[in-house]
Amino acid sequence: MQWLKSIGSSLKINHLANTVRDSLWQANCPLCKRPADHILCRDCDRQITAYQSPEFLQKDNPIALEIPLYSWGIYDGALKRAIAACKYDNHPEIMEVIGEKIANTWQRSPITRALVQKYKQISVVPIPLHANKLKSRGFNQAEVLAKQFCDLAQIPCKPQILQRIKDTKAQMQTKSVIEREENLSQAFTVPSIKANYRDVILCDDIYTTGATIREAIATLRRRDINVRAVVVMARPQFQR
Ligand SMILES: [Zn+2]
């Protein structure tokens, strides 16, 4: 039965080789574990794209009239599941896929291209995580998203401009508007930076109540840094 043993061991070697090849070159789709095309499989990619928002610019101006909010998608269904898989199942590469999608939409829009032309020194600042959360999650999803977006849209990414100094509760766990505001009060700081940054675009994964974004805008404004736009991956539809 030596021949059977040798087939068995060669099959095992093949299996091992497949695993090594998959992990080195072509990891499976992190959402469905089937063979991937470009990080995700085509099917999951299509499902996510189905949640692309019909309008990139949020016409209700939820932050302020002078600060446009751009949201790539609707926070629901496959897109919501993908964000959860990224954050809680340790798949930062999902944010890279969506960062690419945002960059494509950004570059197709004349309004956003005009914004970058108007403020020549503009850079993108991702909403930071507190050091404790960064340690437990291992990555800041907003920063992964922002870096990929910036690489493709050719805008400098400057995560060092804003720092989170308060380990806040998740906004979803707060019960009232007052509690939400207190939770975020003085959550951020602008560490001493040598370069002069005047104009920035804030970037985050999800826009819900806008409390986090507003607190970040206020902190930056105290240091004479103006937020010219906010870009997020998704926003729940019920708020519109
Ligand atoms: Zn898939």
Briefly, what is this?
The chain has 240 residues and is of the alpha/beta class. Helix content is 45%, strand content 13%.
Descriptive overview:
Belongs to the ComF/GntX family. It holds the Pfam family Pribosyltran. This is ComF family protein. The mean pLDDT is 88. Helix 9 (211-222) links the parallel strand 5 (199-206) and strand 6. With 240 residues, the protein is an alpha/beta fold. It is 45% helix and 13% strand. It binds zinc ion (ZN). Zinc ion binds next to helix 2.
Strand arrangement across the biggest beta sheet: 1-6-5-2
| Bound ligands | zinc ion
**Molecular shape:** globular
CATH architecture: 3-Layer(aba) Sandwich
SS strand fraction:
5-15%
Show the helix and strand layout.
Elements: H1 2-24, H2 42-49, E1 69-74, H3 77-88, H4 93-108, H5 110-118, E2 123-126, H6 131-137, H7 141-153, E3 163-164, H8 177-184, E4 188-189, E5 199-206, H9 211-222, E6 226-235
Helix pairs in contact: 2-3, 4-7
Q: What labels describe this entry?
A:
single chain, alpha/beta, two-stranded antiparallel sheet, 45% helix, binds zinc ion
